[in-house]
């Protein structure tokens, strides 16, 4: 299946994401801060990156903007998975280049479906 990078500072959420995605065959890598996530993205070149917004070192918005400014990541699908839900937050994430915006809490089924849709679109 696909290579998915999860960048999430909450260890429990990262573990849940890893379990859900691996259960449908994805190869999952995890980073627990934005700086490590960016480094891992450049090392692994994932098909998809799932970002939390509020993280140490670099925010999800900063990571997304950096990846989108690099032509190597033009086809990489990026999902923001966050508790931030205001229309302004969604607009800021879209301006940074996210392909999808999912608000926590989410169900495993929602996650699987949104990831599958994004990867098929890519």
The CATH class designation is Alpha Beta
What fraction of residues sit in β-strands? 15-25%
What class would the helix/strand composition place it in? alpha/beta
Output the strand order for the largest sheet: 2-1-3-4-5
Shape, principal axes of CA atoms: globular
- The N- and C-terminal alpha carbons lie at a distance of 13 Å
Proportion of helical residues: 40-55%
The ordered H/E elements are EHEHEHEHEH
Tell how many strands the DSSP assignment holds. 5
CATH level-four homologous superfamily name = Response regulator
Low-confidence parts: none
- Average pLDDT value? 96
Radius of gyration: 13 Å
Number of helices: 5
CATH topology: Rossmann fold
Describe it for me?
Helix 2 (34-44) packs parallel to helix 3 (60-68). By secondary structure, the protein is of the alpha/beta class. Helices cover 47% and strands 20% of the residues. The mean pLDDT is 96. It has five helices and five strands; from the N terminus they run E-H-E-H-E-H-E-H-E-H. It has one domain (3-115): Rossmann fold. It has a five-stranded parallel sheet with strand order 2-1-3-4-5, with helices on both faces. The protein has helices spanning 11-23, 34-44, 60-68, 87-96, 108-121; strands spanning 3-7, 27-31, 48-51, 77-82, 100-103. The two termini are 13 Å apart.
